[in-house]
Amino acid sequence: MTFSSIRIITANIKQLVSFYENVTGTTFKWYTDDFAELRTPLGTLAIGSTRTLALFGGDEIANAASNRSVIIEFQVDDVDTRYQQLTGILGEEVVQQPTTMPWGNRSLLFRDTDGNLVNFFTPITQEARERNGTKI
User: Fold this and answer.
1) 90 Cβ neighbours under 8 A, 6+ residues apart
2) CATH tag, 1-64
3) Prediction pTM value
4) Which of 43, 73, 109, 120 is buried most deeply by CB count within 10 Å?
5) Which pLDDT belongs to residue 22?
6) Which residues on neighbouring strands pair with residue 99, listed in sequence order?
């Protein structure tokens, strides 16, 4: 089995895609007006509009902007530098400024425009770097 993607369903796809393009510095590929993806070597962040729910069986399948349990994570080269670069974009959506975690990552936790939690992290200990496949 190969992990493929995480998909966020949103009522405002243009706003959410624009947010992720701004914070990641990467352009999404749009397939339709209702579906876009950010592909990385390890997985894909897909964003679909609420209109795509009809293809999965109806509007009751998922509720946009109601996630309370998933954190979308991106490994970055230097979380402290990214934090400084994003301060103007994130504003009050920062949940936790860069903090060193017990498992060896330095993490920045914030919310996207739909309220989903996003973690930018940098492995800083030898063990964390090895676990994340980071060159030392």
Assistant:
1) 23, 110
2) 3.10.180.10
3) 0.92
4) 120
5) 97
6) 107
